[in-house]
Amino acid sequence: MAMNRGAFDDVPLPTLFPFLSPADVESLRHAARAVDAARVDGDGAEWEWALQHAVFPGTQPWTPIIFGLDVVEHAAGADQLEFQLEVVWTDRGRLAVDAAVNVACWCDTDHATHDVDALRLVVGEENSLAGVFQTGAERVIGWLTESRDADYWRARAGLPARQSC
């Protein structure tokens, strides 16, 4: 899947979401800037987007991502902590905002990663894309203010710590 990358201001929101009003576009930009400001690494955020997913691609064996951001924290010993905020298509062709914290798996059976906290908000008549994106962004900002230690998040989810496996 070919994804474009760049700063949030590079994301072609009117192409991806032609139904958005100028106020909704500005709301998305405001929320994304707040997420970018909450990151501690100081690097410019690399948002990703897929122009080919601007139109619902039909039911897929994977979740079609329209645009999003992954904030990845790497630690010694191949440990990883990831914070995600994405706008995706659901199986039924509705837009949703997914936000998640996931960690590298240290279980006896390798699951690769585990979502230790996640949120999915589906856009509907009562919740606009701008509104659910703002809620997802606020959740990610909250997570980013917590610990950057993957074992902290594993403990919250009752998963084995890296040292115990």
Describe the structure.
- The protein is of the alpha+beta class.
- The chain has 4 helices and 6 strands; from the N terminus they run βααβββββαα.
- A 6-stranded antiparallel β-sheet has the order 1-2-3-4-5-6.
- A hairpin with a 3-residue loop joins strand 3 (65-75) and strand 4.
- Helix 2 runs parallel beside helix 3.
- The radius of gyration is 16 Å and the shape is globular.
Considering the chains and any ligands shown, give keywords for the structure.
six-stranded antiparallel sheet; alpha+beta; globular; single chain; 27% helix
Number of helices: 4
Order of neighbouring strands in the sheet with most strands = 1-2-3-4-5-6
Kindly state the number of beta strands: 6
Describe the global form.
globular
Mean pLDDT: 88
Quaternary state of this entry equals: single chain
Beta-strand proportion: 25-35%
Helix content, binned percent: 25-40%
* Intertermini distance: 34 Å
Largest sheet: number of strands, sense, barrel closure:
6 strands, antiparallel
CA radius of gyration: 16 Å
